[in-house]
Amino acid sequence: MKKLIVYSLMAIALFLSSTVHADDFGMYVKVTEKLEGAFNEAIKNTEEMLVKNGWQILASYDASVPEGCSHKAHVIVINSPGYSEKIITHGVKSSFALPLRVGVFTDENGINISFVNPASLNRTVLGDNVEKEVSASKMKDLSAILASAGKGRVVNQQTGEVRSKGHVGGMGGGAFTDKVKEIYTRQDSGSAFREISGKVKEGIVSNTNGWKLVYTLDLGGNITIYGVTKSKVEARAFKIAGEKRESKINSCPGIDHVPAFPIEVIVYREKGMVKVATLDEMYRMKVYFEDAGNWAFMKNMGMPGEIEKEITGMATSKLK
To answer: Which 3-state string (H, E, C) describes 190-249?
Structure first.
């Protein structure tokens, strides 16, 4: 308990003393670096501290890394029921801000822990002035919990694209609500929601393109989120994310974006219809990987379309 209190106070103090402007949030928060012990031990300790503090572990898996990369990356998908209930009061599309994800990865300096920053993600999905206090509070809570998962240097650094507002502009950007792609709709009647949810899951599980169903999150019987990923997509995305930062001692720095995956496919009820939706993939990559730079996006313009086509195809393959 003393250890948790000490690390919690350190985490909060670092946030309060940060040189980043109060309204500037990175897409991720790097909590600790140079953790002592083995990689698998760091994962185990992180999971235990999350569960101890009320978080559910929806999935925990080793992410793929670029070819030739000697480092490791791991994703822990987490959910807090009370937090999720609060977020989805803002409409079914707000579920694209859920669940949250923690990344454990190595670099030339050792083992690091980071997470997707709700203070950044919620501004994009919900709006700049929606649940600001809840988002900031959850960011600080997660930082304190993760800082207590092992002995290391607590940094609480805002990483990825650092934004001063939720709107994601430029090439591939735009208003969030315009980027939700409804890939299937049917009138809501009787067991339609359950049937469609089941068919979407069946399509994902039976795909032959290398996609994997990582987690399923049911929210109140009106929303089901499926998290999907593909090894080749992860490895390529991390390669692109880190290209301009590569060095002789770290050939794959882009794995610090590991909490960007999995990708969401969501089934929800809205206005008398049952809908299957995913985010426009160029937009989603912009949200999570914008710091890679415009040149990286231009060189890989075909990638988002390929991903979206495969996800749409498998998610609707069993639907008529």
So the answer is: CCHHHHHHHHHHHHHHCCCCCEEEEEEEEECCCEEEEEEEEHHHHHHHHHHHHHHHCCCC
